[in-house]
Amino acid sequence: MSKSVKRIILIICIVAFVVCFCIAFVKYSENSKQTVLLSDDFVEFFDVGQGDCALISSNGLNCLIDVGTSPSTDNLVTKLRQNGIDNLDLISVSHFHTDHTGGIYDIISKFTVKNLFLPKINEDTNIVNDVAFAKRDCVSNGGKVYSSKAGQTVNIGDFKLSVLYQNSFLKGENNRSVYIMANINGIKFFFTGDGESKAESELVKKNLNLDCDVLKVPHHGGSKSSTDKFLNACTPEYAVISCGQDNSYGHPHKETLERLKKRNIEIYRTDKSGDVMFFVQDKKMTISTEK
Q: Do residues 105 and 81 touch, judged by C-beta distance below 8 A?
């Protein structure tokens, strides 16, 4: 093989490498997690494995909706610190299952929490003691504890959070989940805990405005949630499913994914994308993912 041919082959290989690198860099830039400031407005759904945890942040104020599992706490604390967060203005618990509330005591022991919203505990769970200790520490550090009730509103910067529904008398802890709508300049995020078909049916019957832009899919995408009537009332453009990779429940279930896809709802999954962030600016959203 002549030197000229070798030189041509070498040039082709170099060009091919540069092209591949540029494509990979662009793809990474498009999907990588956006850097935000404390003054920015955003909602971030954290990858906490088979659990739920979301951060609402605006004008330096911060709220957690659920806190994930106990094993996910160290990673969650690291992520909050990386965002420059030392204090939490509000933690709102949807219901008392360990995949949503397991890290409550650890989080409150590491951050000053100004307000803690808790639904009524109707059944014995293995986190009752952790919740009691969390309430004690919150109050001892100057925070306040409230019972979650429909009609409550609280502002987190430019976000207005409204408790739309919570029924302590429904059967099953999942169905007693607190439903919260977070609205910022007309862009709405709907947090649904692990509510199943019974709670969804009761909620739809109330003829409340459930229209949202982003739906935190109930119960990790389980088939007993996200019913047709509920999705028809919500009409989200985006859906976020918080679930663990290769989890033993098979979440999200095929039936739920089909109902979402049938409505052309864009789906994000923490088991595939890691953390999912919705950055809000000038009444528009930019979406970025960890992976």
A: no
Summarised one tens digit per residue, pLDDT across range 116-128 is 999 988 765 668 8
SS3 at position 281: strand
> Which positions of the chain have pLDDT values less than 70?
1-38, 123-126
Q: In sequence order, what are the residues at sequence separation of 6 or more whose Cβ sits closer than 8 angstroms to the Cβ of residue 16?
A: none
Cα 162 to Cα 3: distance, rounded to the nearest angstrom: 73
- Among residues 191, 188, 201, the alpha carbon closest in space to that of 232 is found at 201
pTM metric for this prediction:
0.87
3-state SS, residue 218: helix
Residue 114's identity, in one-letter code, is K
Could you tell me where the DSSP H helices lie in the chain?
A: 3-31, 73-82, 98-101, 104-110, 128-140, 197-205, 228-234, 254-262, 270-273
- 209 token code pair: 């405005």
| Cα–Cα distance for residue pair 287/268, rounded to 1 Å | 10
- Distance between CA 4 and CA 76 in Å, rounded? 57
Chain centroid offset of residue 137 CA: 25
Which one, of 71, 44, 76, lies nearest residue 57 by Cα? 44
| CA distance to 133, 202, 212, per residue, from 41 (Å) | 31, 32, 17
pLDDT (tens digit, 9 = 90+) per residue, 208-247? Answer: 999 999 999 999 999 999 999 999 999 999 999 999 999 9
* pLDDT recorded at residue 25: 42
DSSP class of residue 238? E
